[in-house]
Write a structure and sequence with these properties.
Layout lengths: L6 H32 L2 H26 L15 H29 L6 H22 L7 H30 L4 H28 L9 H9 L4 E13 L2 E10 L2 H4 L3 H14 L7 E7 L1 H4 L8
Parallel strand pairs: 2-3
Antiparallel strand pairs: 1-2
Helix pairs in contact: 1-2, 1-4, 2-3, 2-5, 3-5, 3-6, 4-5, 5-6
């Protein structure tokens, strides 16, 4: 079967990630200078956060480049799983940032640092402007795969952080309430941690080769058994190599006459059409081993 891995979309994703990474790096350098000039602890923490997110975008960019590599005799699927590994690493980093924010929140609520409101406002606005631009760049491909989804979440996290800095600066300037910075940080962590956990769970599910959530394996087996030539199904496996790339393998017991009457090719085409057309997501990569009842009763070879 011909396989289209949508290299055009991957190239577009890499370009978007490269632009977002450039913008994020520029913001990072600006905030680092601001943190040194003002001595603001809040700005220093946000700069460290930006460094983490820039690293996440760099991982996403590398993964997007690896996904464009062709298949080889060593990597028969190419580097398609690079997006899953990158998404998992980005999610772990986001979780670490969120847990760190929760861990130091109590201490900072009891002993809030002195923060210059005017400097926070200036650099908060700079950060928000850059993050909004990055979000606009990534918006079109944010659902393309887990890698892009995680990268979009990284930048969204930055944007929320910039909003928190701006709100904190305004509240500090008008009320002098120092704890507002910590409260805003807790709110961001509460929004980011669940999303990061969802991406991490999705990545682990693919790496563990679980059946895709949208597919009922029993329903699939019943569809295959509806074919009049099929007598049984065993060793049925469905998993995902990466986003939009489900694969299926199965041993199918058919009537002996299918091989003597040249029905085998017809049965094989019908089975492929069944899994391609009857489910929420098309399964283009299918491998069916047709066999008679005598073959299906043979003991399987032990696994090394």
């Amino acid at each position: 079967m011909a396989h289209d891995h949508d290299h055009g979309a991957s190239t577009s994703s890499r370009t978007r990630l490269a632009i977002a990474f450039g913008i994020t790096t520029a913001i990072l350098l600006a905030q680092a200078v601001g943190a040194v000039l003002t001595g603001s602890l809040a700005l220093l923490v946000d700069t460290a956060h930006m460094l983490t997110d820039a690293g996440g975008l760099l991982m996403a960019l590398i993964a997007a480049s690896l996904m464009l590599r062709p298949t080889t005799a060593t990597h028969t699927w190419g580097m398609r799983r690079a997006e899953v590994l990158s998404a998992a690493l980005q999610a772990l980093v986001l979780l670490a940032v969120g847990i760190y924010a929760l861990a130091i929140a109590w201490q900072r609520l009891l002993d809030p640092p002195e923060i210059p409101a005017d400097s926070l406002l200036i650099f908060g606005i700079i950060g928000l402007a850059g993050n909004v631009l990055s979000l606009a760049v990534l918006m079109g491909d944010r659902h393309a795969n887990l890698n892009l989804r995680a990268a979009f979440l990284e930048v969204l996290n930055d944007a929320l952080g910039s909003v928190a800095v701006i709100v904190s600066a305004i509240v500090l300037a008008t009320t002098g309430w120092q704890q507002i910075d910590t409260v805003a940080g807790l709110a961001i962590a509460a929004l980011i941690v669940p999303r990061a956990f969802f991406i991490l769970r999705s990545s682990v599910t693919i790496l563990m080769e679980a059946v895709p959530a949208w597919l009922d394996l029993d329903d699939l087996e019943q569809h295959l058994l509806e074919n009049p030539h099929v007598r049984g199904i065993h060793d049925l496996h469905v998993s995902k190599i990466g986003t939009g790339l489900p694969v299926l393998t199965a041993h199918v017991e058919v009537e002996p006459g299918c091989f003597t009457d040249s029905h085998a090719d017809e049965v094989l085409a019908e089975l492929r059409a069944c899994v391609r057309d009857h489910f929420e997501e098309r399964i283009e990569h299918t491998t069916f081993q047709l066999e008679t009842s005598d073959c299906s009763r043979e003991q399987p070879l032990p696994h090394a």
